[in-house]
Amino acid sequence: MKTVIITGASSGIGRACAEKFAEQGWNLVVTARRIERLEALKTELVEKYGINVYPVKLDVTQAVSGPVLAEFLQTNAITPDLLINNAGLASGLDPIQSGAIDDWERMIDTNLKGLLYITRSISPMMVEQGFGHIINLGSIAGKEAYPNGNVYCATKHAVDGLTKAMRMDLVSYGIRVTQIAPGAVETEFSEVRFHGDSARAANVYKGFKPLNSNDVADAIWYCASVPAHVNINDLVIMPTAQAAATIIHKTL
Ligand code: NDP
Ligand code: 8X3
């Protein structure tokens, strides 16, 4: 039985990945700050699929999160077959000249430094075992910039670059590295971006059919389930109604 480690499994795409991989018979290490959600997920998935689910409370903005996770895996003799670096967020949507420094730090600490902390601790285990797969959640915001997206776009451009560089560093160890770059997916993402303003968040998805978390989890599952000699380097996935970061066909 294989094991997938998912950061940010308490909501949205991470949670949908947990369900998808559980359905396929994988064991799960699910991490996030909201441990009560992870415990509830464990109860649900263990009952439904009879797999092992290990919830780990983790704040990826803390450098210690990587070593804590690695120690947890070692203590429980868990082999990291796949790491999904999914934990991430946007905070604010302000022009650069009036952006909130707190928002900027939150995005950089989570999307960039958090991904690095976790990768730094899990990739050596993969190197040692001689196999593994890392899937990073980038974004269309890592391929294009858009007005007021400034720092969020910068963090996702960083994920885009890092994914390529990680692939180079890990290629000789048989480790696959993939980036998934979605467009608009309806999750808690916009509510977090707008600091809990759910009416403003709902407005983002009005007038067109956005992706849902399962659409992205299905794409991630595809990348994880291709034969071992195949690596999907980069997968951009958008709603049919979306042609670019700023071009969404709305029928309002
Ligand atoms: P959600 O807000 O629904 O989920 C985000 C997840 O990240 C939650 O489980 C949250 O858990 C976790 N997370 C946030 N901060 C931290 C932290 N400091 N430490 C640990 N976990 C954290 O959003 P999505 O599912 O949409 O987002 C998942 C990923 O997909 C992100 O990287 C996002 O940038 C990316 N993405 C999203 C798109 C979209 O349109 N929704 C499009 C493109 C990419 P908790 O709060 O419990 O810690
Ligand atoms: C989330 C998609 O376009 O809101 O990464 O930045 S977008």
Overall radius of gyration: 17 Å
Query: How many helical elements?
Result: 8
Oligomeric status: single chain
How many structural units, i.e. domains? Answer: 1
- Biggest sheet record: 7 strands, parallel
Order of helices and strands: EHEHEHEHEHEHHHEEE
Distance between the termini: 48 Å
Which fold does the CATH topology refer to? Rossmann fold
Q: Please give the CATH class.
A: Alpha Beta
Shape: globular
Summarize the model shown.
The chain contains eight helices and nine strands.
Q: What does this entry look like structurally?
A:
Helices cover 45% and strands 17% of the residues. With 252 residues, it is an alpha/beta fold. It has one domain (3-248): NAD(P)-binding Rossmann-like Domain (Rossmann fold). The longest helix is centred in the middle third of the chain and has 29 residues, at 101-129. The chain starts with a strand and ends with a strand. The mean pLDDT is 98. The structure holds NADPH dihydro-nicotinamide-adenine-dinucleotide phosphate and 2-hydroxyethylsulfonic acid (8X3). 2-hydroxyethylsulfonic acid (8X3) is lined by residues 139-141, 149, 184, 245.
Descriptive key words:
single chain, 252 residues, alpha/beta, Rossmann fold, seven-stranded parallel sheet, two-stranded antiparallel sheet, 8 helices, 17% strand, globular, binds NADPH dihydro-nicotinamide-adenine-dinucleotide phosphate, binds 2-hydroxyethylsulfonic acid
